[in-house]
Amino acid sequence: MTYTPEALAALVGDSQFDPRVYGDEALFRLEMARIFDRSWLLVGHESLVKQPGSFYATRAGSHPILVWRDGQGTVRAFLNRCTHRGTRLCSLDRGVAGSLVCPYHGWVFAADGALKSVPAPEEYGSDFRLGDWGLAPVAALDFYRGFLFVRHTKQGPGLREFLGDAASSIDDLVDRAPDGEVEACAIPLRHRYKGNWKLGFENLNDAHHARVAHAATVRAATRVTAELAEKATHASLGVMKANGMPIRQFSQLDLVTAKFGHSYLFGFIDGQKKQPFPQDYVDRLSRARGAEEAARILSVNRHLTLLYPSATLQGRFQTMRLIHPLGPDLTEIVGYIFRLKGAPDRMYEEALHYFHVSISPFSPVATDDFELYEGAQELNASSSAGPIVVSRLHEPGKASNAERVVHRGTSEAFIRNQYATWLSYMCDEASR
Ligand code: FES
Ligand SMILES: [Fe+2]
Questions:
Q1: Do 82 and 172 have their domain in common?
Q2: Relative to the CA of 118, which ligand 1 atom is closest?
Q3: Of all atoms in ligand 1, which is nearest to the CA of residue 86?
């Protein structure tokens, strides 16, 4: 089926949408071409390629890419594709090398992407020039405070404009480091769920679901914190417990939607108030920034940020998820954890604990959500499925896709904002 702008618009209403957006193969391909090939995508952090020659392989939308630092220190991103017959150049997840040899016929590429040598070059013809066959660079690459973004087209807004108000969520993470920098743990944890990528984006800032979907872990965290009393010092337990807050308390939190589909939810009060930061960390941050600025940084109680369409961030818990759509009904999540440079190890341990509880493949919280996503994927595949309703706290006329709009914490505005963005990408003339 081909989708005209009218057909696309018919899929997405103000407060309802058509369930075919989850399972339709043609729509998925269109999303890859019109959203993921045109938007800035978060693909990692400069600390993943610290030394000359270091590289890692990841995905940017539907394209495998290779991020590689050359001998002069320049970081580039290439399609991870040999320019001879198009096979995958690098099958390793990460490593350090001044050059890589294609596993098919042995073409050798340098870290700056140049083709250095090929076996028996004379056999490729007299007009064959190594200089014509370097790796294809991704069209655009930029950093924001060490976070690496790429885009598959040159045209479009600059990275700073794309991030808009959501850049403050990256600030929230980096500002917490006494030395002013964060460092990603090089080995991420990956897992997959059998559902559409959008299901995750529609869940993670959904304050209403937490107390219902995660009731079992709320009970467990409540019991464990009561048993351990003041010895239960992991902040992640506080957050797990806070998932069980009454709806009226959730609705008093602020949910912010921003341009380009981004959103963030302010934090879970319970988890913050009862779990103060270690004093030696507060002291180090205060020495580095002054007591007033340190207090301001630590008072930011932002729970989770959705950087549409590629990632989530949690500054308070030093984590990032990259979201890789692999098919209409298959999504990979790559979870990274960050160390705050200059902070005591205790902060890294805290983050690690949170990571395991909430993000890793072992997370008892995430597995609740995956079961829900997979149910939604299966039941929305049929053409007779009814609409998806996102009318909670719908305020007709309240701007969608605007610079910064504050909603009540339990609003489904962030989903409506994502679909307004989805529609504008999908119908954009320039992408056809
Ligand atoms: S495909 Fe890479 S050398 Fe032939
Ligand atoms: Fe959840």
A1: no
A2: 3
A3: 1
- What are 357's two structure tokens? 């509880």
Q: Are 139 and 247 part of one and the same domain?
A: no
- Give the position, in ligand 1's atom list, of the atom nearest the Cα of 89: 2
**Complete edge-to-edge strand list for the sheet that includes strand 54-60:** 75-79, 63-69, 54-60, 94-96
Whether pTM exceeds 0.90: yes
Residue whose CB lies within 8 A of the most ligand 1 atoms, among 66, 78, 84, for a mutation test: 84
Cβ contacts of residue 261 below 8 Å, gap of 6+? 306, 308, 309, 401, 417, 418, 420, 421, 422
Return averaged pLDDT per consecutive 10 residues of the chain, 432 residues in all.
Answer: 90 94 95 97 98 98 98 98 98 97 98 98 96 98 98 97 97 98 93 97 93 89 77 72 86 94 82 71 97 94 95 95 98 97 95 89 90 94 86 84 90 96 88 46
Half-sphere exposure of 296 (CA within 13 A, CB side): 6
Mutate to test the pocket of ligand 1, among 102, 115, 123, 135 (most ligand atoms within 8 A of CB): 102
CATH of the domain at 380: 3.90.380.10
Looking at the fold, whether 109 and 78 belong to one and the same domain comes out as: yes
Cα of 33 from ligand 2 centre, angstroms: 29
Cite the beta strand spans of 145-299 per DSSP E: 147-151, 182-184, 189-193, 254-258, 263-266
Residues 106 and 219 in one domain: no
Q: Is 119 in the pocket of ligand 1 (CB under 6 A)?
A: no
